[in-house]
Amino acid sequence: YSRDTEGSWFRSLFVHKVDPRKDAHSNLLSKKETSNLYKIQFHNVKPECLDAYNSLTEEVLPKLHLDADYPCDLVGNWNTWYGEQDQAVHLWRFSGGYPALMDCMNKLKQNKEYLDFRKERSRMLLSRRNQLLLEFSFWNEPLPRQGPNI
């Protein structure tokens, strides 16, 4: 091998030009043709209140799902049997992304029935947390299923 070849081969090990990322990784992977945003809620319920909690949510949450004034769909809700015990999980889809989420939250602040529900629900909870999830291109669309399911 000639010296120039060795020099270029050796140089190729160390000299690489990498283009800087121009967008957030999540934006690069997210679906472009849709703008759904998902919210997953985790509610840790007092063990003695789990049945009352489930009855209360079965009464109120489907009303929000069916009300066309709210840009959200209840994709699923369930209780966990393994891992966190006495936990309820709710998965919501907001058609229209962050603006739809904010619209829905602002409307819920004015909804007396929902505010009463939250007040009653708060007495049954040990803790709660939410996560917002972008719809990625490699996800399938989550579809509601008839239960009971494991």
CATH topology of the domain at 32-133: Alpha-Beta Plaits
State the helical fraction: 25-40%
Radius of gyration: 24 Å
Major beta sheet, specifics?
Answer: 4 strands, antiparallel
In the CATH classification, which architecture of the domain at 32-133 applies?
A: 2-Layer Sandwich
Q: Judging from the principal axes of the Cα atoms, what is the shape? A: globular
| Secondary-structure element string | HHEHEEHHE
Which structural class matches the secondary elements?
A: alpha+beta
From the N-terminal CA to the C-terminal CA, the straight-line distance is: 65 Å
| Number of continuous helical runs | 5
Organism: Phaethon lepturus (White-tailed tropicbird)
Protein name: Protein NipSnap 1
Task: Itemize the secondary structure elements and their pairings.
Layout: H1 3-14, H2 25-29, E1 36-45, H3 50-66, E2 72-79, E3 87-95, H4 97-108, H5 112-122, E4 125-134
Antiparallel strand pairs: 1-3, 1-4, 2-3
Protein name: Protein NipSnap 1
InterPro entries: Dimeric_a/b-barrel, NipSnap_domain
